[in-house]
Amino acid sequence: MKNKTSFLPKEGEAQPSRCPDNSAFKQQRLPAWKPQLTIASVLSSFFLTGAFCITVGVCLVLSANSVREIQIDYSDKCSDCSKFRENSSNWNKDCQCSVNFTLKEAILGDIFMYYGLQNFYQNHRRYVMSRSDAQLLGRNVNIQRSYCAPFSTYRNGTPMAPCGAIANSIFNDTIDLFYNHNSSVIQVPLLKTGNSWWTDKNVKFRNPDSYNLSSAFAAGTARPPYWQKPVYLLDEEDERNNGYVNDDFIIWMRVSAFATFRNLYRRVRRVRRFAEGLPAGNYTFRISYNFPVARFKGRKHVILSTVVWSGGSNPFLGIAYLVSGSVATLTGFVITGIHLKLRKKKTYFQKQ
Amino acid sequence: MERCAARRAPEEERRVRANAREYNEKFQYASNCIKTSKYNIVTFLPVNLFEQFQEVANTYFLFLLILQLIPQISSLSWFTTIVPLVLVLTITAVKDATDDYFRHKSDNQVNNRQSQVLISGVLRQEQWMNVRVGDIIKLENNQFVAQADLLLLSSSEPHGLCYIETAELDGETNMKVRQAIPVTAELGDISQLACFDGEVICEPPNNKLDKFGGTLYWKENKYPLSNQNMLLRGCVLRNTEWCFGLVIFAGGLKQQLLLCCTEGRERHPLMPSCFPGPDTKLMQNSGRTKFKRTSIDRLMNTLVLWIFGFLVCMGVILAIGNAIWEHEVGVCFQIYLPWDEGVHSAFFSGFLSFWSYIIILNTVVPISLYVSVEVIRLGHSYFINWDKKMYCAKRRTPAEARTTTLNEELGQVEYIFSDKTGTLTQNIMVFSKCSVNGHSYGDVQDMLGHKAELGERPEPVDFSFNPLADPRFQFWDPSLLEAVKLGDLHVHEFFRLLSLCHTVMSEEKSEGELLYKAQSPDEGALVTAARNFGFVFRSRTPKTITVHELGQAITYQLLAILDFNNIRKRMSVIVRSPEGKIRLYCKGADTILLERLHHINQDLTSTTTDHLNEYAGEGLRTLVLAYKDLEENYYKDWSERLHQAGSASEAREDHLARLYDELLGATAIEDKLQQGVPETIAILTLANIKIWVLTGDKQETAVNIGYSCKMLTDDMAEVFVVTGHTVLEVREELRKAREKMMDASRSVCNGFYQEKLSSKLTSVLEAIAGEYALVINGHSLAHALEADMEVEFLETACACKAVICCRVTPLQKAQVVELVKKYKKAVTLAIGDGANDVSMIKTAHIGVGISGQEGIQAVLASDYSFSQFKFLQRLLLVHGRWSYLRMCKFLCYFFYKNFAFTMVHFWFGFFCGFSAQTVYDQYFITLYNIVYTSLPVLAMGVFDQDVPEQRSMEYPKLYEPGQLNLLFNKREFFICIAQGIYTSILMFFIPYGVFADATRDDGAQLADYQSFAVTVATSLVIVVSVQIGLDTGFWTAINHFFIWGSLAAYFTILFTMHSDSLFRMFPNQFRFVGNAQNTLAQPTVWLTIALTTVVCIMPVVAFRFLKLDLKPELSDTVRYTQLVRKKQKTQHRCMRHAGRVGSRRSGYAFSHQEGFGELIMSGKNMRLSSLALSSFAPRPNTSWIETLRKKKGCEGSSAGSPSGAADKTLKV
Question: Given B387, B912, B1034, which is nearest A20 (Cβ)?
Answer without folding.
Answer: B387
